[in-house]
Amino acid sequence: MRSHKQASRCREEQGQFVEEQASALQLLRRNWLMQSACGFAGVAATALGAGPAGAAETGFAAALSRPHHRPRAKRVIFLFMQGGVSQVDSFDYKPLLARRHGEEMEFDDARQLAKTGQRTRQRLMQSPWKFRPYGECGRMVSDLFPETARHVDDLCFLHGMHTEGVAHGPATLFLHCGATNFVRPSVGSWIYYGLGTENADLPGFVTIAPSLGNGGPRNYGAAFLPPRYQGTKIGSAGARQLTMAGLGETQTVGQTETVELLRALNVAQRRRRDPAVDEFDAALQSVDLAWRTQRVAPEILDLERETAATWRLYGMDDPHTRSFGEKCLLARRLCEQGVRFIQVNYGDNSANPAWDQHSNLPKHAEHARAVDRPIAGLLTDLKQRGLLDDTIVWWGGEFGRTPYSQDNGTGRDHNPGGFTVWLAGGGFKPGFAFGRTDEFGFQGIEGKVHMHDLHATLLYQLGLDHERLTYRYAGRDFRLTDVYGRVIKEVLA
């Protein structure tokens, strides 16, 4: 009897001990996650809770182990000009617009057609900036972008772009995700999913200073793809400097022991689960990635390691260009480290994004001044380091702007029917222009390129077939280009 009571008491004490240890371990887990939530590594760890519940993931083996065909490029740097740069004031020269300045004409205005279904009369407005020829190709560029213009012999212009969505929200989502009304993976997530990363210590997809508006995190989200493929955010739109809190901290022996203990516990828990629990696997891999990233991120993100000449190249010696210069320089450093998709955002969190000049077109000059020198510096730096050959630099916004003044005022309205983006490096034809808009720069009329076509072409240069890069979810195969898109082979070198 006494032996039975002793055994019972022993079991109770053991149970209490296990509960205390579990509680202590949970506290350690919470403390570690809170500490790692600072800076770059903590953002990677947020994937612990990412991904829709019940998503029908087919496993990480669904990601390609190799490209579909021989790639011309390994990575993309996307310079996103939020709000829509005016093509007729930057890279799409329309001399007739100046000659007929002030005349009224009928246009199929996208907003008015959506509201009334009728054409409207609008007053043509010439560009406030002069255009000049640059480079051996003689490309005409406005005085808004004199520094970028010096690189026209390396740029491939797409002048017949058109897209979906008249408002910023739908058009921005379509640019990033290929859809306006469904939650879909972003282009960076698709590329990361298809190719993986060249550096196991860093995320394969990074977005620098993204906006909270017009889709916010959906623009760098993985949606129904495994959560490990979502973008890692550095900094926020509107901040004057990048936030790198906690990146200078050194990993201590105690932190390392804690992580090793957590890893062992997680592995043990994984063995007890169903073999097909991909969200749990994603969480484990996310924690490991965050820990590895914390070791290498301080050096990568320390821009002070660069020379004074490099700082000047990116315009970081000028308060007007320093902010975007930092972002472009960081993009180059991440590019060198093997990150597959790097998005550099120029914008803010306001209701009217940066380039959205409905009533104050001259403000384009302020934004152009902020980005022109850093963009030129990035192109110079990539080229002299031999990185431009296998890196695609993609510049553009969600749509363009109208060639007429909005409400007879001093600004331009949204224009999804005809606008310009440019591409550099990565096997695209340098010093080349494809497609054109009408004589006023309103609608694409020749060599038209839909946003689905641009996505398909970018994937193609990375070695991915947009029709084969699919993911099965909710009973059907999804892809970035939906059921559309063609590769624009006319622009490939």
Task: Compile the SSE list and pairings.
Elements: H1 2-35, H2 39-45, E1 75-81, H3 95-99, E2 104-107, H4 110-115, E3 120-123, E4 131-134, E5 139-142, H5 146-149, E6 155-162, H6 168-177, H7 187-195, E7 205-208, E8 232-234, H8 253-271, H9 278-300, H10 308-313, H11 322-336, E9 341-346, H12 364-384, E10 391-396, E11 400-405, E12 412-415, E13 419-424, E14 432-434, E15 436-437, E16 444-446, E17 449-450, H13 451-461, E18 471-473, E19 476-478
Parallel strand pairs: 1-9, 1-10, 6-14, 6-17, 7-8, 7-9
Antiparallel strand pairs: 2-3, 4-5, 6-13, 10-13, 11-12, 15-16, 18-19
Helix pairs in contact: 1-8, 2-9, 8-9, 11-12
Report what the structure shows:
The protein has helices at residues 2-35, 39-45, 95-99, 110-115, 146-149, 168-177, 187-195, 253-271, 278-300, 308-313, 322-336, 364-384, 451-461, and strands at 75-81, 104-107, 120-123, 131-134, 139-142, 155-162, 205-208, 232-234, 341-346, 391-396, 400-405, 412-415, 419-424, 432-434, 436-437, 444-446, 449-450, 471-473, 476-478. The chain is α/β, with parallel strands linked by helices. Helix 1 crosses helix 8 (253-271) and helix 2 (39-45) packs antiparallel against helix 9 (278-300). It has a single domain (55-249, 296-491), classed as 3-Layer(aba) Sandwich (Alkaline Phosphatase, subunit A). Strands 1, 6, 7, 8, 9, 10, 13, 14 and 17 form a 9-stranded mixed β-sheet that branches. It starts with a helix and ends in a 15-residue tail after the last strand. Strand 18 and strand 19 (476-478) form a beta hairpin. The protein is globular.
